[in-house]
UniProtKB/TrEMBL annotation, chain B:
This protein's name: Ferredoxin
Domain 4Fe-4S ferredoxin-type intervals: 5-34, 40-63
Organism, scientific name: Thermococcus celericrescens
Keywords: 4Fe-4S, Iron, Iron-sulfur, Metal-binding
Pfam families: Fer4_21
Length: 396, 67
């Protein structure tokens, strides 16, 4: 059996893991980043949409190799076909090529000094004298013991290593979305915008998306509440059929489960930290988690470096405190909004999409929804419905 | 008490996405790079994994209790 020793071992080379590995390696500490996939980033489990702001914010090169397309806004469709468009003059987001993106993030970590091992699966934690001293992993048919002072569980939705280490990452079934997606040829949609369809028959709790990667190629997917008796695949196939969209040119099938609530309370236990999907750090409204994983990874790495510098692992706990005071607080508010929107009927969705303007949508997208809700509360069709007034008031 | 079940995977449908492992409250499912694994002794027969699978690759069989 092979043994290794590092300051930090990071399990999972999705988004969160490589950001942590890169930042810690940059500060001069020895880091090993492992992933069970033989090719980091492949297969993808993602619609690949992300805000353009993240590149500067998290110091990631704006590299054309992993950017399929720049996006200028969004178009929303209500159950009866009302539309709401939000279009910016400048690119507001991009559709990535995640297979390349994830691999490049791991490459940046390697360039910063981290070691990276693909096809290396963490199986369990190593316990010594009552504490966790590292990870037991498997590379091909070889067992590897990786000893480390700090262990980072960035192992995605499965969160196996975090849970084996004793961090409670349990979330109830309702706090997950099941998603199914085709990367396919599709025509007739403005390729400069992302497109989202809502409706309780279309996508219970979630939405159908078309995220363009090319003029005539897009990620076409769906997310629904994962405690639904039907599958996500059932709903997406039904939507394609009802909209006469031929599903005959399919380049990929992508499957996944997304945590959309139930954020983990204690993100640190002794010398173990949990980040990203593993910590359920995803936006509960739209199910995007890449930016959240980058943010959590940035906060976690800051405290790992401080703890190593000051040789005081108790400092790691500040990651929990800082995350909950910043992104955690924000996401908790988003979760509250989702719980309200979950109660909207198809008629409500029709009405709101009909009476909201692009300017309103822009305010909502920016998180400034209070003003819009106050205006909605004065709308004649809202005033007539005590139920709608009650729902909207819950959002204020 | 719910009926005790054995969870079965249809390998031809499964994408090894790891979703069922993520929602299982008791770590009774492991999705390795080499395949899907069910650990009967940990399963509490809650069926959460079965409804969460995006493609319907999981089903349940009643568990035969050996007397
Ligand atoms: C269908 C779908 C569409 C989505 N669309 C979007 C979108 O458009 N925009 C957005 O921002 N987010 C989207 N998301 C969510 C986004 O993909 C995740 O939030 C994001 O990838 C989280 O990053 P992470 O690093 O926490 O986890 P992941 O990216 O899941 O990375 C975890 C890594 O850990 C590895 N791993 C797991 N267990 C082990 C182990 N035991 N040993 C070694 N390695 C292990 C895995 O192989 C994986 O590479 C989508 C998700 C799905 C399923
Ligand atoms: S959720 Fe379904 S597709 Fe994904 S690993 Fe489990 S059985 Fe396979
Ligand atoms: S039935 Fe419940 S306990 Fe058993 S494997 Fe599925 S989710 Fe886990």
């Amino acid at each position: 059996m092979k043994e290794m020793k590092y300051d930090v071992v990071v399990v999972g080379a999705g988004i969160a893991g490589p950001i942590v590995a890169r930042n810690v390696a940059k500060s001069g500490y020895s880091v090993l980043l492992i992933d069970k996939k033989p090719a980091i980033g492949t297969p993808k489990q993602c619609a690949e949409g992300i805000s353009i702001k993240v590149f500067e914010k998290y110091d990631i090169p704006y590299d054309k190799r992993f950017i399929n397309r720049e996006i200028y806004g969004a178009k929303l469709y209500s159950p009866s076909g009302y539309e709401l468009e939000l279009r910016y003059k400048e690119a507001s987001g991009v559709i990535l090529e995640r297979k390349v993106f994830d691999k490049m993030l791991a490459y940046y970590a390697a360039k910063a000094g981290a070691d990276v091992l693909a096809r290396t699966e963490a199986l369990d934690v190593i316990r010594k004298d009552g504490r966790i001293a590292g990870i037991k992993a498997k590379h091909e048919d070889e067992t590897v013991e990786i000893h480390a002072d700090v262990i980072v569980a960035a192992d995605g939705v499965e969160s196996t290593i975090a849970r084996k280490a004793g961090i409670n990452t349990y979330a109830p079934p309702h706090e997950f979305d099941s998603s199914y997606e085709y990367e396919m040829l599709i025509e007739g949609y403005d390729p400069d915008l992302i497109h989202l369809w809502f409706g309780n028959e279309v996508a219970p709790r979630g939405y159908v998306w078309v995220f363009p990667k090319d003029e005539d190629r897009a990620n076409v997917g769906i997310g629904i509440n994962s405690d639904n008796p039907q599958t996500a695949k059932y709903y997406l196939d039904k939507w394609l059929k009802e909209n006469n969209i031929p599903a005959k040119k399919i380049l990929e099938v992508n499957v996944g489960v997304v945590p959309v609530g139930g954020f983990v309370k204690e993100l640190v236990k002794d010398n173990i930290l949990v980040v990203g999907d593993a910590a359920r750090q995803v936006n509960p409204m739209h199910g995007g988690g890449m930016a959240e994983a980058m943010e959590a990874g940035t906060i976690a790495s800051k405290w790992i470096v401080k703890a190593l510098e000051e040789e005081d692992l108790a400092l790691l706990r500040n990651y929990t405190t800082e995350w909950w005071e910043t992104d955690g607080e924000r996401l908790q508010k988003v979760l509250k909004v989702r719980k309200v929107t979950e109660k909207l009927s198809d008629e409500d969705l029709d009405l709101f999409i009909q009476i909201l303007s692009g300017a309103d949508a822009e305010k909502i997208a920016g998180g400034d929804y209070g003003e819009v809700i106050k205006a909605l509360l004065k709308h004649p069709k809202v005033i007539l419905s005590p139920r709608r007034i009650k729902l909207l008031r819950e959002l204020l | 008490m719910p009926e005790k079940i054995k969870v079965i995977v249809n390998e031809d449908r499964c994408y090894l996405c790891g979703g069922c492992a993520g929602v299982c409250p008791t770590l009774a499912i492991e999705v390795h790079s080499s395949g899907w694994e069910f650990l009967q002794d940990k399963c509490i027969s809650c069926r959460i994994c079965i409804s969460a699978c995006p493609v319907g690759a999981l089903s349940a069989e009643p568990l035969e209790v050996s007397e």
